[in-house]
Amino acid sequence: MIRSELIQIIADENPHLYQRDVERIVNTVFNEITEALAKGDRVELRGFGAFSVKSRDARMGRNPRTGEPVKVESKSVPFFKTGKLLRDRLNGRA
Questions:
Q1: β 43-45/59-62 pair status
Q2: 38 to 41, 51, 92: CA distances (angstroms)
Q3: CB atoms < 10 A from the CB of 15, how many?
Q4: Which is it for strands 75-82 and 49-56: parallel, antiparallel or unpaired?
Q5: What's the gap between Cα 84 and its chain centre?
Q6: CA–CA separation, 28 and 93 (whole Å)
Q7: Model pTM?
Q8: Burial (0-12, 13-18, 19+ Cβ within 10 Å), 25
Q9: Backbone angles phi, psi at 34, to 5 degrees
Q10: Residue pair 78/53 in contact by the 8 Å Cβ criterion
Q11: Mind listing the pLDDT tens digit for each residue in 37-71?
Q12: Burial status of residue 46 (CB atoms within 10 A of its CB: 0-12, 13-18, 19 or more)
């Protein structure tokens, strides 16, 4: 599912809301999650999962084409851990 499909589904299920308002709400939620992660905070959505930031150390990598060593800088990467309710639903337990 892509963002526009999510917006359309929410708008269809809530006919009392304008589509532009639903789009603004969805964009605000995603922007707030992004801003929190950029600050290094953890975002938890109960029953769904938790977003956090993990840091990866600098290391020596390898160029797959030439095989020569390449220095890879340290970096921060987003990480998502599913919540128990989502995990159970995916496995047919709920």
A1: unpaired
A2: 7, 11, 34
A3: 7
A4: antiparallel
A5: 17
A6: 32
A7: 0.79
A8: middle
A9: -60, -45
A10: yes
A11: 999 999 999 999 999 999 999 999 999 999 999 99
A12: exposed
